[in-house]
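Schema walk-through. Below, the input block comes first and the output block second. Nothing else is stored per chain. Lengths vary across the set, and this one has 132 residues.
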Amino acid sequence: MIFEMTTQFRVSNFKEGQEWYETLFNKKPDFIPHDGFAEWEIIPGCWLQVAEGTLTEGNGPLRLGVPNIEAERDRLVKTLNIDHFEIHSRPEVPVKWGTFKDPWGNQLGLFEYMDKSEEQKRIKMIIGSKDV
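--- output ---
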């Protein structure tokens, strides 16, 4: 089950990048977990991350929200022969995440909320249901 997504764009100058995206979306970021990184929820469940860093060819990774990242990683490793899929976390970030590549080099990934009550609230809000 996929219920949410994020995508990330990198900028070489974070201050300029954040200002540009604030202008584009006509609002401040919804979440700034640490220096050089900001997120906007564009529509419910659809986030754009802007991060300072080395520019990459194309955009990405595109990360999809899942309820159990380990189970999904295991499924993808088995069914799609994914050969590298590490799961990461940081104390100040409320999710754990992992990134992998498709056969053409495109970066994709998954993320899972650490706080399951927050995950359930997000799912209910996005799908507009009281029951999940």
